[in-house]
Automatic annotation (TrEMBL):
<dbReference type="InterPro" id="IPR010869">
    <property type="entry name" value="DUF1501"/>
</dbReference>
<dbReference type="Pfam" id="PF07394">
    <property type="entry name" value="DUF1501"/>
</dbReference>
<dbReference type="InterPro" id="IPR017850">
    <property type="entry name" value="Alkaline_phosphatase_core_sf"/>
</dbReference>
<protein>
    <recommendedName>
        <fullName>DUF1501 domain-containing protein</fullName>
    </recommendedName>
</protein>
């Protein structure tokens, strides 16, 4: 699958030979050194549609790839029949009248800072289509079963923000870590800029920050290179490229020249604004311990460090692709492998942001692409063991904190067995509108694809109750 520039899945493969090494953060030059065109944009970024004052300067999206069971986490049904309510018990939280799963005690203790939306809903039960829906706020164009990523897709939130608010300081608008959502030949949609073109793609970090000696190699200068030598090489490149700007400009995407991209590369290398965030050894070991010495915890810690470095949107994929896809041993996997590290890591993140004075300006969102079937062992088209739950998009839950969100509340409700909304549902488009508005971006803004065609940024409405208890 190729985009209009001939790139397979839109992933460009140019070598960074001009500065002596190949690629930043495992990405191509075109993805990382995104040139921003300002003059030809008609999109506007302004106040949110509901009139509420935007609060967020950043967002951390905790993505539970595969789909968390809402009935075994934030929307338990203790009075439902056994084959629906499952094995776990509910516990009271710090928010009056609100209960969470017994295996989420730390988040339960912080529920006064949390808002749970229990009536999220859409129609896609295929992982790829549903992931695009949640990560962009739009249905995937021409969606069919396992439709992979393409440049016809809608942009992820970081890419939409990057288009509307281009940066000139070398700091990326979006970073996704620590796993790239891909299985065999299937590249999950919703991780890229899609129709906006590769210049607006977020950075993809594919290393585990919990591994000893974790570092993003391509943020370091190559062996034998000094800053001075790199600077001299840049001067030579500038002279060579002086007469090539016209040829290297990409008019179909409103782009700048490749020499502009190299200048931003050099700025990033020499400033170290972002590179320092990846040095987790600079963190107090006790802080690292609070997050948990596992991939989930250290990825969330890295997200906090990137936000502090000025990155507006960080997406943390909690596990490898589909790790929350509990078709079998739903309760064993949640209890032993998934809920405890998530509980600890997200709780530490909330505490850390609050203690640093960042929670009020950092929106934290946690969601999967859908929920799980109300009846244990039932099927919506997949093979499930008697102790598994299948895909379920009709209703599921999402967690919110920070960025002006009023904690200690539940928004919306599912029915008595957690099968359908019992109150007006909220769609992924409404999630998208909430995210964009939190940044002070009008969800109805017009963007233009790489061919200059106008497209509405978002068709949803912000989830207003999140901002009023």
């Amino acid at each position: 699958m190729r985009d209009g520039s001939g790139h397979a899945h839109g992933i460009v493969r140019r070598e960074f030979l001009q500065v002596g090494f190949s690629g930043f953060l495992g990405l191509s030059l075109s993805q990382i050194l995104t040139a921003r065109a300002l003059a030809d944009r008609v999109a506007k970024a302004g106040g949110g549609g509901s009139g509420s004052k935007p609060r967020a300067k950043s967002m951390i999206l905790v993505f539970l790839t595969g789909g968390l069971s809402h009935l075994d986490s934030f929307d338990m049904k203790p009075d439902a029949p056994e084959r629906i309510r499952g094995e776990f018990k509910p516990i009271d939280t710090a928010a009056s009248g609100v209960q969470f799963c017994e295996h989420l005690p730390m988040l339960a203790a912080r529920a006064a800072d949390l808002a749970v939306v229990r009536s999220m809903s859409h129609k896609f039960t295929n992982h790829l289509n549903a992931t695009h829906e949640l990560l962009t706020g739009h249905s995937q164009p021409g969606a069919f079963f396992d439709k992979v990523a393409s440049r016809d897709d809608y942009p992820c939130y970081a890419s939409g923000l990057d288009y509307l608010r281009p940066r000139q300081d070398g700091i990326p608008t979006g970073v996704m870590l620590p796993t790239f959502l891909m299985e065999g030949p299937l590249v999950w949609p919703g991780q890229h800029a899609g129709l906006l073109g590769p210049r607006h793609d977020p950075w993809q970090i594919k290393q585990d920050p919990n591994q000893p000696g974790f570092r993003v190699d391509s943020l370091a200068l190559p062996v034998g290179f000094s800053v001075e030598r790199l600077g001299r090489r840049q001067t030579l490149l500038d002279q060579i490229n002086h007469h090539q700007n016209e040829a290297l400009t990409q008019p179909s995407t409103g782009g700048d020249s490749m020499s502009d991209q190299r200048a931003r590369a050099m700025s990033l290398l020499l400033s170290g604004k972002v590179s320092g965030a990846f040095d987790l050894d600079k963190e107090d070991p006790k802080t690292r311990d609070r997050y948990g010495r596992h991939t989930f915890g250290q990825s969330l810690l890295l997200a906090r460090r990137l936000v502090e470095a000025g990155v507006p949107i960080v997406q943390v994929n909690m596990g490898r692709v589909q790790q929350w896809d509990t078709h079998s041993q739903n309760f064993k996997n949640l209890k032993e492998h998934l809920l405890p590290p998530t509980d600890r890591g997200v709780s530490a993140l909330l505490d850390d942001l609050k203690s640093r004075g960042l929670l009020d300006e950092t929106l934290v969102v946690m969601t999967g692409e859908f929920g799980r079937t109300p009846r244990i062992g039932s099927s919506t088209g997949n093979n499930n063991t008697p102790d598994g739950r299948d895909h379920w998009a009709a209703v599921f839950s999402a967690l919110f904190a920070g960025g002006g969100v009023q904690g200690g509340q539940v928004v919306g409700a599912s029915d008595r067995i957690g099968a359908h909304p019992a109150s007006p549902p909220y769609a992924p488009a409404d999630l998208a509108a909430t995210i964009y508005q939190s940044f002070g971006v009008d969800p109805a803004s017009e963007i233009r694809d790489r061919f200059g065609r106008p497209i509405r940024l978002c068709d949803g409405q912000p989830i207003a109750p999140l901002y009023s208890a």
